[in-house]
Design brief:
heterodimer; A: mainly alpha; B: mainly alpha; ABC transporter involved in vitamin B12 uptake, BtuC; two-stranded antiparallel sheet; 15 helices; globular
Amino acid sequence: MTQFLSLLLNGISLGAIYALIALGFVVIFKASEVVSFTHGSLLLLGAYSIARLSEPLGFYLAVVVGVAITAFAAFLIERLIINRLRGAPVISLAIVTIGVDIILLTELIRRIGSDILNVPHPWGGGSVRIGDVGISENRLIATLVAGVLIALFFLAFKFSNWGVAMRASAEDGETAALMGIRLGRVSVLAWVIAGVLAGVAALFLVGSPTPGVSPTAYSVALRAFPAAILGGLDSTGGALVGGLLIGLAESFAAGYQDQLLFLGRGFGDVVPYIVMIAVLLFRPSGLFGTRELTRV
Amino acid sequence: MSESTATAARGATRSTGRTAAGPRRSLLRPLLLAVVLLVALALPLYVEEFWLRTGFAVCGAVVGAIGLNLLVGTTGQLSLAHAFFLAVGAVTYVFVSGESGGLGLADLSGLAWPPVVGMIAGVLLAGLAGLLFSPIAARLRGIYLGVASLGLVFIGQHVLNSWTQVTGGFNGRSAPEFSLFGFTFGNTDPDLYVLEVPFREAERLWYLGLVLALGAYLFARNLLRSRPGRALQTLRDSEVAASVMGVNVQRYKARVFLVSSMYAGLAGVMYALSIGSIAPESFGLEVSILYLAMIVLGGLGSVGGAVLGALFVSALPLVFQRYADVVPLVGGSGEGGLAPGEAARFLFGLAIILVILFQPAGLAGLADRFRRRGRDPGGGRPTSASAAATSSSTTAVPSDPPAQGSTS
């Protein structure tokens, strides 16, 4: 029972981080119809910048600058590439982000090399006990921060001018443009927000129980893809649910590894994808995604 | 390339005014093809082993790229699962034709059947895997499919790593030599000399690769010109229009997935032959992405483009590696210079972005443009949207076919 509770708690905290990343995917998709394959390397960029800058700048400033760098990279990608391809087929847009991803990832891996960079979180690697259940401090803080950020995001999405503009342009881009909404601005803001979310997620993703910044962070970030797809690519709420589901599934699969040994070691790493494929089999647009209807 | 539907349509509408241009082109093209083929056949007599080995690897990539292009370029189904199907083909070949026996700690099993059987089994099993995935694939649209297929790659990695008995696990296992009715594609047995040039493994494999790649090319080109090929292109342009015209959307999507994964299976077998062994890391997400790079650079939907793209993407890192001290900016893996693999990857990434931004029809489109420039002033400019247009633009261009390198 204790194990179950602890896995549950860890799953939720991991899911919160996934939800942050997945939310970024969804926001970008809603605003600019782009499925951003750059997200993994953006995340790695954030983690790398924080790790490298925390020596000269101190931890908190490094976090701010690192997140800003990530957001700025997202901004550049939108301005220089995506913005010029407005109206291009979804597949071309996805492929172009793969191109960006190749470049960014190659450079980052080259810089990181084979060492594991350490991010000196002030909360260290300690863990907290709640009753019988233990969870690493890093993950606990991650859950709280993610909760606050997600709440802020949903409030902004619902009430702020940007949120309204974005929902309108996602609903019907042409009409929104005719009503005076600047689609370009909506899109670039979405990218920046996604960049910030990815940067924050990176901060917690490389803390304990993960050893530090290494290229594996990239594949962890990729697991937020199933989260976004699972919930439905155009549903912000879906990203949240998807993130939590994936986090829980992964945590349980890793925790009960011994019972699942016949499926091979490290099964937890693939569980997100299996869950995603299983869900897509029954709901091709994800749990909360709008079904595409075709009228003739 | 020149017989793309667009060109054909263009030619048809204007043929009255330009009867002279028609026959000249139809003569030039086979001639060019014959020359290329002749050079390819004579190559082993002149060049060294490195180029032949690279050539065989390129042939494998060509087969795989043509297959992926049928799926992504022609039908507009984004798939990142190509590496998975490659793996299925390669593993099947190694398992079916490999010997049982212990290798270090691992206890490998194999059927030790003739390599031809292994190759065919590899292709069929990869096709079967594609067929099994196609119920999902056929229901998913565009981008959902892309991400779902991403999952297959990771699941494949997991299986490769854990099913040690068959795949050799983390360390992989070696691939058996290919042989055809007693003729081995190895260094000896029988010893072979042509014009006093010893024909060893590299030379023999080069011819094998040439035959397989040519077969794959012809099959795909003919497929695209046939009724199913037209159906697939219609499917890409508009699923609604396709189904209205009597194309069974689900069934065609499933079939193209089958064909594409069979291509991948063959490419996987050829990969195993060219490297001589398989390991999980050879079938990661990066491979899928490289294949995507090939067809984007070559030109989505164009078979000839896929060949060009495969040539470029798969040969470049090898060439960089060999001539690391000559190529500027590329150093050894040490300080300062870029490692060859890295340099190549930077180049691919940049090339993908530039192609999508400025030349959506890829290398094939570029070739098309040059060819048309002389005859057809102002007509060579392709329309902007990429060939993978599942574009929702319902603007008023009804009957005109999209001018991108559609077929061949």
